[in-house]
Amino acid sequence: MIRKEFGPLNDDNPVLKELHPFLKEKKEPSKWAGTELDGETAYVYYYFANELSKDKILKFSKSLFGWEQPMLPEDLSFYKSENPWLLSIAHEQIAYILTDDQYEINRLRK
What we know:
Layout: E1 2-3, H1 14-19, E2 23-27, E3 31-32, E4 35-36, E5 42-47, H2 51-60, E6 78-80, E7 83-89, E8 94-97, H3 102-109
Antiparallel strand pairs: 1-5, 2-5, 3-4, 6-7, 7-8
């Protein structure tokens, strides 16, 4: 997500350029999983997640909390079947996983 008040990241930005082949869609909402803006909008980018896009993401930061503007888009999150699964709020150093899948819960506990 790119918040407008922190300044734009243009299409020449290395992160956006590297992830462009995986871009699914770009929206401009005021609300999405984990965040609601008061009367403003932001650019939210949705990408396909696979091994190649994972390698690109890890190239820029190995921490969820490293995804902060102005250097990187904010709040890296992952979805499963169009539902939020792993959400992060980088500037507050908050991250959580939304799942009822007992197998996933057991794996995460280990």
